[in-house]
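Protein: ATP-dependent translocase ABCB1
Species: Clonorchis sinensis
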Amino acid sequence: AILRQDVPWFEKQTSGGLVHKLSENVDIIQNGIGTKFGDFVQNISGFLTGLIIAFAVGWKLSLVAFAMLPLVAIAFALFGFLMKILTLKEVAAYSRAGGIANEVLSAIRTVVAFGGEEKEYNRYSSELTTAQKQGVKKSMAVGG
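Structure follows.
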């Protein structure tokens, strides 16, 4: 997908940010293929097993509870959408911070020569503070 981007997209990206995004996306994909898929299969299996047992034991009560399933599904979908937005904001802030660190460390001699250590430190700290705020918002949404 990166090879198909237009030139202006590359001009907007910093070299450090691009490297950080690539490594972050590889981790996300690896995590998604690994544990997340297994958890999904386990949860679906548990749900179907519970549904079968519930209908076998008390089909009338199960039918009433099953009628509430669309409301529960909508609530979970809204929660998932909120988590996606908050996670994307958090990852973007960490990506910017990682990009700054990568840029500064790759040109550390230039930064030191011009006395820009404090400025770069403040820039990096600002992005980390933004990422921390996004992480706190996300944890508040989860309830932790």
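Remarks: The mean pLDDT is 85.
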